[in-house]
């Protein structure tokens, strides 16, 4: 049975392991190996993850089954002083995709958002990431496009996708 629990800094190695196993497969046809390595180091170093958890207020949740981490999500409520919860990261091990893990993690983010009074879930996704279809199937809509400079001459070329609590829809 897949269980979702809140991560702590003690779970950073599990988050890093999922990222290392997921990113090369997810982005191999989208980003160069150099950009993947740069982004993994920038976003998933122990210091960066600890800062996200302890200083930036990002909440991380792990999906686990029989002690094995299958994936994670990170979200931030009240994003930019709005009634929006931003999903910063969501990655599921490639061999466990299609089992409902991603949906459970997004539902957990929605639960946290609802508890804080937020009315929108928002995320960025690379314009060429096949996960766009998954997000659309569960009710996310493209609302904007962003090109974000991340240093070292690299950018993230993304769609912004939002899901609203209005209308009583569920993920």
Automatic annotation (TrEMBL):
Gene Ontology molecular function terms on file: acyltransferase activity, transferring groups other than amino-acyl groups
Domain N-acetyltransferase: 2-166
Source taxon at top rank: Bacteria
Gene3D superfamilies: 3.40.630.30
SUPFAM superfamilies: Acyl-CoA N-acyltransferases (Nat) (SSF55729)
Xref: InterPro entries: Acyl_CoA_acyltransferase (IPR016181), GNAT_dom (IPR000182), MshD_Acetyltransferase (IPR050276)
Name this protein carries in UniProt: GNAT family N-acetyltransferase
Organism: Sinomicrobium weinanense
């Amino acid at each position: 049975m897949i269980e979702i629990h809140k991560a702590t800094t003690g779970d950073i190695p599990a988050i890093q392991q999922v990222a290392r196993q997921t990113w090369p497969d997810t982005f191999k046809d989208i980003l160069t190996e150099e950009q993947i390595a740069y982004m993994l180091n920038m976003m998933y170093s122990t210091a960066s993850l600890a800062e996200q958890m302890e200083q930036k207020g990002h909440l991380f949740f792990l999906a686990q089954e029989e002690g094995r981490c299958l994936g994670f999500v990170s979200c931030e409520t009240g994003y930019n002083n709005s009634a929006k919860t931003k999903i910063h990261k969501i990655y599921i091990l490639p061999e466990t995709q299609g089992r409902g893990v991603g949906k459970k993690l997004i539902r957990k983010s929605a639960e946290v958002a609802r508890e804080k009074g937020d009315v929108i879930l928002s995320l960025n996704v690379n314009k060429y990431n096949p996960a766009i279809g998954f997000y659309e199937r569960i009710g996310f809509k493209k609302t904007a496009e962003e090109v974000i400079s991340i240093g070292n001459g690299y950018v993230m070329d993304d769609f912004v996708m939002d899901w609203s609590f209005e209308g009583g829809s569920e993920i």
